[in-house]
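General statements about sequence and structure are easier to judge against a single worked case. Part of our work consisted of pairing the sequence of a single chain with a tokenised description of its backbone. The amino acid sequence and the backbone structure tokens for this protein are reproduced below.

***
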Amino acid sequence: MKKYRFFFHYYKRYKCMSIHYKGACLRANDVICSVPIETKWNKTQPNLVMRGFAESVEIINNICYIK
């Protein structure tokens, strides 16, 4: 299965996590990540994002599962 780049960060305005995958911005209260991730520092907001490659991203009961 092909893997796609994803990243997530805290979305202060809505007080939740923002997960970006395949051009879509998803929101969830919690993230459970089962793949390796790395930190990426930006000069603008969001200053810190966690990113990696995943085969799927699903939101179930407001929890994001990254596999």
The chain has one domain: 4-66.
